[in-house]
Write a structure and sequence with these properties.
About 65% of the residues lie in helices and about 5% in strands. The chain is mainly α. The chain has a two-stranded antiparallel sheet. Helix 1 runs antiparallel to helix 7, helix 4 runs antiparallel to helix 7 and helix 5 packs antiparallel against helix 6. The longest helix is centred in the C-terminal third of the chain and has 32 residues. It is flat. The two termini are about 40 Å apart.
């Protein structure tokens, strides 16, 4: 929970902190649209996505924000990313001439015993292991190698115990689809994390309110809506920190959230949710009292000390973003 970057603000003085929050919000949305405009049916889309990844890395490294912040934010979805990649490689096929590699696979008694043994050892000893995620991926890779290059075949053992064999075929379309979907998720998380890491919650609130201001024509309370969004973004890391504190407090009393039966896990989750609800309501009450003490009235017209104003950096960013969008659209038409 400490690794969640979304919703956290990292103070700094680089160029990204000097951009208008309205531009940063619109640029984030447009960049996500650009990501989804990249075709996934051929290798040209992969080259385009790698180009976008390179631009994002260059831009991020110049912001002064530690890159480990984004990498830590990817940990909660790392297993989902790898699962998506594997599914795309397995189920995406293509023409015979686009076949890249054929991996002979087999399953039998001895490989099954090895796989079950490795997974059992991991489950039993994972509470004592550092880098659990890395070790799990290493074990899964070893299981794949056991199914691929069966070590017992070299000893001429009795292979009547082999149950099934098949060919794992990797096509060019599968590689491009898996890579592009992987990079899509990474870039989406990266660009949204970059927005929240470089923009204070008050600036996000003002930016959302300004971006959605045309909706005032339809009598939509844009100010209230933007306030709700900014408070939600701000409370995500706060509640995660509180949940971590509760888990540490209960762990010191002998509660182990990673072990136990299904019934025990349900009781542990209930024991976590009850104080979380209490803390959430207490935080909300304290926040409402603080807002009332500062003169905040729901629905009333508000003034701002610092008025938002676009500067030359924002106009330069708009030009770069438009060129990038136009380039991806042209690439999708002629290369997709």
């Amino acid at each position: 929970m400490d690794n969640i970057a979304f919703g956290q603000y990292y103070p700094g003085k680089s160029w990204i902190y000097k951009l208008d929050p309205r531009f940063k919000i619109i640029a984030t949305i447009v960049f996500i649209v650009i990501i989804f405009l990249v075709p996934i049916t051929n290798m040209n889309g992969l080259y385009m996505m790698l180009g976008l990844l390179g631009l994002f890395i260059i831009a991020f490294l110049t912001t002064g924000i530690p890159f480990i912040k984004v990498l830590n934010g990817l940990k909660p979805v790392l297993f989902l990313l790898m699962f998506t990649v594997v599914l795309q490689l397995i189920y995406t096929t293509g023409e015979a001439e686009t076949l890249l590699y054929t991996i002979p696979m087999s399953i039998g008694l001895y490989p099954s015993l090895i796989i079950i043994g490795l997974l059992t050892l991991y489950i039993v000893f994972k509470r004592y292991l550092p880098f659990k995620t890395l070790i799990l991926f290493v074990i899964l890779f070893i299981c794949f190698l056991v199914l691929w290059d069966n070590p017992f075949e070299k000893f001429n053992w009795n292979f009547s115990l082999q149950w099934a064999s098949w060919d794992f075929k990797i096509y060019q379309a599968g590689v491009s689809r898996a890579s592009i979907i992987f990079l899509r998720i990474v870039l989406m998380l990266g660009v949204t994390s970059l927005l929240t890491l470089s923009t204070m919650s008050t600036d996000i609130n003002n930016g959302i309110e300004a971006v959605l201001s045309p909706l005032k024509i339809f009598k939509i309370p844009v100010g209230i809506f933007s306030m709700l969004i900014s408070l939600t973004l701000r409370f995500i890391p706060t509640l995660m920190i509180e949940a971590k504190k509760i888990m540490n407090a209960q762990a010191s009393r002998g509660v182990d959230f990673s072990e136990g039966s299904l019934k025990d896990k349900a009781n542990q989750i209930i024991a976590l949710l009850i104080p979380m609800f209490v803390i959430s309501f207490k935080r909300a009450e304290d926040l409402s009292n603080a807002m009332e003490a500062r003169g905040y009235i729901v629905g009333a017209k508000r003034t701002k000390i610092d008025e938002l104003k676009l500067r030359w950096r924002d106009y330069l960013g708009i030009v770069i973003l438009c060129l990038l969008l136009a380039g991806v659209i042209v690439g999708r038409i002629y290369l997709g």
